[in-house]
């Protein structure tokens, strides 16, 4: 078993493969045929992506093993990387180390939820010093985390859940956000991220959150909109989606209050520099 601050790259269990079969159409036969077809489509395209089985599965699982859909997702990723080249070109963990180590704005829980999904919290309020960390830097950190999450077969199959915590948000935080930043984040989540985003939960939103939401709302598509939930300070509403047994005391859960953060997770990112370098080659020929 991997330790608490490790990427779980263990092969899917029989139980997990059954989930993949039911939700993603994954069987040994479907998987093999889809990998072969995606390789053919990729080689005949203007895209440059690694074509080993592990890498292709990253794109086939969220698209339910339809090779054409996987290729479209790859194209979306290539387009996104091209559009935001200034921010993302050859981005390595060391480039976002201060966001992880010095500020702790993002935290991945060491446990999964009751459905086996990865849980992540993003602090957009009192923990965010807008004078030291920009909106762009937060996005670069989130993009880096995605590169690590896709390495986990369990996360590829079960997906991920994000909690945005706005506790202590003030006008300074609102002013630090932009329409372009909102569009970039939502384009990434909805079109250019090969992860199954199962839910986005907003907690501790103050009154001025309406100003923030007005930036994001125009870019939210129907599918994601159905997976967005607003709870305010009512953690009981959050517990309707994520079991109390899977949440720390910070969010009304029965687990101990968080005593770890991105600082503890950061060394994991550097362990996978080779994979991230490989990921950074993805794009157009």
TrEMBL record:
Protein name: CRAL-TRIO domain-containing protein
Tree of life domain: Eukaryota
Record Pfam families: CRAL_TRIO (PF00650)
Organism the protein comes from: Anopheles quadriannulatus
Entries under Gene3D superfamilies matching the protein: Alpha-tocopherol transfer, CRAL-TRIO lipid binding domain, N-terminal domain of phosphatidylinositol transfer protein sec14p
SUPFAM superfamilies, alphabetized: CRAL/TRIO domain, CRAL/TRIO N-terminal domain
Annotated ranges, domain CRAL-TRIO: 96-259
CDD domains tied to this protein: SEC14
One GO CC annotation: membrane
Family annotation (PROSITE patterns): CRAL_TRIO
GO function terms (MF aspect): phosphatidylinositol bisphosphate binding
């Amino acid at each position: 078993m991997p330790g608490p601050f490790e990427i779980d790259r263990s092969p899917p269990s029989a139980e997990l493969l059954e989930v993949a079969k039911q939700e993603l159409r994954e069987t040994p036969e479907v998987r093999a045929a889809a990998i072969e077809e995606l390789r053919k489509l990729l080689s005949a395209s203007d895209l440059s992506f690694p074509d080993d089985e592990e890498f292709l599965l990253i794109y086939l699982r969220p698209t339910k093993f339809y090779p054409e859909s996987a290729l479209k997702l790859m194209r979306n990723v290539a387009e996104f990387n091209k559009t935001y080249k200034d921010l993302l070109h050859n981005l390595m963990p060391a480039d976002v180390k201060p966001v992880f180590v010095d500020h702790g704005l993002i935290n991945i829980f060491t446990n999964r939820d009751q459905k086996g999904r990865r849980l992540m919290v993003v602090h957009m309020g009192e923990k965010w010093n807008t004078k030291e960390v920009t909106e762009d830097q937060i996005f670069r950190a989130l993009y880096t985390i995605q590169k690590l999450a896709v390495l986990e077969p369990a996360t590829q199959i079960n997906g991920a859940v994000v909690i945005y915590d706005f506790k202590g948000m003030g006008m300074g935080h609102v002013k630090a956000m932009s329409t372009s930043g909102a569009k970039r984040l939502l384009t990434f989540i909805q079109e250019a991220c090969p992860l199954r985003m199962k839910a986005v939960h907003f907690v501790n939103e103050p009154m001025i959150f309406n100003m923030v939401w007005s930036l994001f709302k125009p870019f939210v598509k129907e599918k994601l909109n159905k997976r967005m939930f607003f709870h305010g300070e009512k953690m009981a509403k959050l517990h309707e989606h994520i079991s109390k047994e899977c949440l720390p005391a910070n969010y009304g859960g029965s687990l101990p209050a968080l005593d770890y953060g991105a600082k503890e997770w950061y060394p994991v990112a550097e362990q996978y520099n080779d994979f991230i370098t490989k990921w950074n080659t993805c794009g157009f020929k």
